[in-house]
Amino acid sequence: MTEHTSSDTRDTELAAQYEAYPYPERNPQDEARRLLIGSPSHLREIDYWVFGAKRPRSQPLRALIAGCGTGDGAIMLATQMARAGRPGEVVCVDRSRHALSIAQARATMRGLTTIRFVEGSLTDLGALDLGLFDYIDCCGVLHHLPDPDAALAGLVAALAPGGGMGVMVYAPYGRTGVYMMQDALEQLAPFDEKPATRLDIAKRVMRHLPATAWLRQNGNFGDHLSGGDAGLYDLLLNPRDRAYTVGAFLDLLDRAGLESTCLMEPARYDPALFLPDPKLRARITQLPAREQATIAESLAGNMATHVAYVVRKGTSVTPADACSFDAVPVMREIPGIELAKQMRPDHTLPFAFGTLVVPVPLPPQARGLLPLIDGERTVGELAAILATRGVPENKFHAVWQETFYTLERLNRVLLQPPA
């Protein structure tokens, strides 16, 4: 194992955990049949939420995956770059040799040639001498470290001017039941026991878990509970597992000299979306964004993580004008025709924020507009097509503005950067 600066007992146990049970549990053979998609580090999200859809696609993107684990984020980003013919490099750093070997095997299965693997600790990036990066992914890592502030500061030091990051940390309310189980297992299966012994005890507890246990009531953990030994270990036996409220998360970013360009998905942090009462909504709109996000987290109760795209304070890029007739909208992932099919007869789109489904109103014309978005047509070309369907330009402008900014906040429609 590569030497790293943080060497307290829990950190030593954490290193042993990920060497014994690399997380998430992945089989490289599965790369032949599917690509796992998520946030952060989706290429279209980086283009829009970090660079405002203004950074040319021809400009090489140098990305660091800090704590890559078995490689989900790295494989997704490198694959998307390869498919789009985007120049650049994805550098993966992790201190677990076992996890890196799995990520490397996945990359080999896909024939990815612009991805590089480095064994080492993100808490000692300077010693690795990797240079600067336009984009840094730190997903599911900071909350396990002895000193998250110091680790984040080290990542900021590796960020190139004008660059940005995608960060994910655990959130407390959506993980209700987890920390109770961790407390119990810390007594039943102490950290100084071998990982295999601890896992055996956890499995025995899960087989006899009381019906009243809060973990049984929480539907947020299918990926962990069905994710084999590695998933169960990471959820219940991790020796260090912090959780951040959205306010504490924003404070962590602030201390590092960072500011959020978006919390993912932005609409999820707007309590007005699931509080239709007009008097409540009037009060909500008077509050600053941070207070609105705090209320949303407290009331929804199901946020198990917080994901943010961030840049250095004062360097945030204003997104390109989505209403310009030269702008090119692009579906983030789900084709427009499929999203249109999901719309209900009352022109609302049922949208799932985890286990919470909220009806999101859209203009009636969105049903015919969404299938036209292909990442190539400009807004002007969309307007021309709708004009042939009886929607004049002034009407189109209102329809498009409402459609785009509603779906942008759901992270479903973004903008294509220039070639």
Automatic annotation (TrEMBL):
Residues 65-163 form the Methyltransferase type domain. Residues 1-13 have a biased composition (Basic and acidic residues). Residues 1-21 are annotated as: Disordered. This is Methyltransferase type 12 domain-containing protein. Gene3D superfamilies: Vaccinia Virus protein VP39. GO terms for molecular function: methyltransferase activity. It comes from the Bacteria. Pfam families: Methyltransf_12.
